């Protein structure tokens, strides 16, 4: 008998390797992978491009009503890429200008309700792996498997630096460190659904794990959870 499909919620600090794990896991299970951070980044890109004043509630509401977010699957990368009003924005949303603003914009209540409503909808049919900051606590509080990822701060900085320096050679380790620390601080201390470990989440510290090792661990957890509901 085929195992029933479940929801896997992966949360954690910036640059813990959540998206790498989520993507590999989804590919292995034949599930959909949704990078919820990409949605907040795309909204931020729209706000930056259109000079939206985030202190003006009407401007924020108007901007949100003009944003249409979709994901398209890229067969080469195995990743669902985000489209902002039908334009593939996957590369632009990784820009440092977006990274510097995204935590502030993701802290706005109206922005969160806009994104969370769409995320909940995507989980209706199960068979989904979603990563972010509030997936196990707010988006899918009933997810069958919740993983909370952590890694040593210095390891996270170097992973992020290695990723960014390929497209931005002038970036410094200090800049990356500062941005990560600031984002983690804002994400954990905001009023609206701050980053928290769900009580029933399993902690995965991947500081000294290879990608294969962490994937095997999580696949075992999925098998356990899926067999419980079979
Ligand atoms: O995962 P990421 O670094 O691409 O996320 C970008 C920002 O979006 C991050 O600073 C916090 C925010 N975010 C959030 O508030 N809730 C989520 N579910 C996902 C991301």
Which helices and strands occur, and which strands form pairs?
Elements: E1 7-12, H1 18-29, E2 32-35, H2 36-49, H3 57-65, E3 69-74, E4 79-84, E5 87-88, H4 96-106, H5 109-122, E6 128-132, H6 135-139, E7 145-150, H7 153-165, H8 173-189, E8 202-205, H9 211-229
Parallel strand pairs: 1-6, 1-7, 2-6, 7-8
Antiparallel strand pairs: 3-4, 4-5
Helix pairs in contact: 1-9, 2-4, 2-5, 4-8, 7-8
Bound molecules: 2'-deoxycytidine-5'-monophosphate.
2'-deoxycytidine-5'-monophosphate is lined by residues 14, 36-37, 40-41, 102-103, 106, 132-135, 183, 187.
CATH topology: Rossmann fold
What does the average pLDDT come to? 94
Give the fraction of residues assigned to helices.
40-55%
Radius of gyration: 17 Å
Terminal residue distance: 9 Å
């Amino acid at each position: 008998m085929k195992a029933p499909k479940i929801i896997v919620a992966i949360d954690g600090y910036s640059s813990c390797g959540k998206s790498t794990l989520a993507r590999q896991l989804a590919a292995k299970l034949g599930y959909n992978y949704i990078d919820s951070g990409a949605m907040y980044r795309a909204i931020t890109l729209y706000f930056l491009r259109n000079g939206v004043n985030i202190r003006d509630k009407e401007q924020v509401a108007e901007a949100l009503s003009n944003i249409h977010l979709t994901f398209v699957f890229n067969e080469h990368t195995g990743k669902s890429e985000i489209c902002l009003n039908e334009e593939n924005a996957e590369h632009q949303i990784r820009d440092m200008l977006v990274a510097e603003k995204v935590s502030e914009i993701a802290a706005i209540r109206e922005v969160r309700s806009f994104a969370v409503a769409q995320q909940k909808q995507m989980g209706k049919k199960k068979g989904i792996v979603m990563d972010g900051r509030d997936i196990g606590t707010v988006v899918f509080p009933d997810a069958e498997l919740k993983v909370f990822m952590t890694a040593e701060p210095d390891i996270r900085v170097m992973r992020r630096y290695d990723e960014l320096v390929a497209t931005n050679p002038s970036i410094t380790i200090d800049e990356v460190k500062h941005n990560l620390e600031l984002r983690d601080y804002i994400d954990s201390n905001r009023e609206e659904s701050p980053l928290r470990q769900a009580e029933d989440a399993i902690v995965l510290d991947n500081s000294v794990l290879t990608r294969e090792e962490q994937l095997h661990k999580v696949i075992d957890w999925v098998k356990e959870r899926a067999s419980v509901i079979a």
